[in-house]
Amino acid sequence: MWLSFGDDFYLNFIKDDRYLYLLKGLGNTLLITVLAAIMGIVLGFIVAIIRSSHDKTGSFKLVDPLCRLYLTVIRGTPTMIQLLIINFVVFGSANVNGIIVGAIAFGLNSGAYVAEIFRSGIMSVDQGQFEAGRSLGLNFTKTMRLIIMPQAFKNVLPALANEFITLLKETSIIGTIGMMDLTRGASIIQSRTYQPFMPLLAAALIYLALVLVMTKLVSRLERRLRSNER
């Protein structure tokens, strides 16, 4: 049994340096995830501010319908369809790096979910907090930055962490546009060795390790935020 395991391990990962497919794919997966997360946070934050401000004060009457349309379309269509449209329609005639395409597609998708998470956090803060900030002479931006958003962020941190974990795993579909990622790296090894078990198991274990690390970091951040409240 162990002799066979060793032979399979050598065939799938050592021979012809096949482990490099996983390493290169892992690098691209992390890069796409980080870029998409940054884009999703910025986009989601802006949309959440517009949507929550409109709900609270009736402002942003012209932009709010556009934000609602964005949320409806992005959340109502599959991520893979959005990725294919971005790659073959939006950038169909342009030679754009697959990492950029993936970051934009996943960033747009994540931004819609982050926006609703941020909005729920903002709406959970008592209206009196906002009015207190304005009565102290703070303008809208400072009231949101100094009073509302710190409380909203603590409220939505677990949901936000779940969204980024989902984002990490969703990048596994970027192989459909020919981009190398962790999942595609495993598929390439499988196509060379005709053995699906080891490469797919390795990819699954790497994803699991990444998720566990992210979960650990978020838990530490939550504990630190709770300790600051005391």
What does the model show?
There is one protein chain. By secondary structure, the protein is an all-alpha fold. The protein is built from nine helices and no strands. It has helices at residues 2-14, 19-57, 64-76, 79-90, 98-124, 127-135, 140-170, 182-193, 197-229. Helix 6 (127-135) packs across helix 7, helix 7 runs antiparallel to helix 9 and helix 8 runs antiparallel to helix 9 (197-229). The chain starts with a helix and ends with a helix.
Q: Report the portion of residues in β strands.
A: under 5%
Order of helices and strands: HHHHHHHHH
Query: What does the overall shape look like?
Result: elongated
**Class derived from helix and strand content:** mainly alpha
Mean pLDDT: 90
How large is the radius of gyration?
22 Å
- Oligomerization status of the protein chains: single chain
Structure characteristics:
82% helix; single chain; 230 residues; elongated; 0% strand; mainly alpha
SSE arrangement:
Layout: H1 2-14, H2 19-57, H3 64-76, H4 79-90, H5 98-124, H6 127-135, H7 140-170, H8 182-193, H9 197-229
Helix pairs in contact: 2-5, 2-8, 3-5, 4-5, 5-7, 6-7, 7-9, 8-9
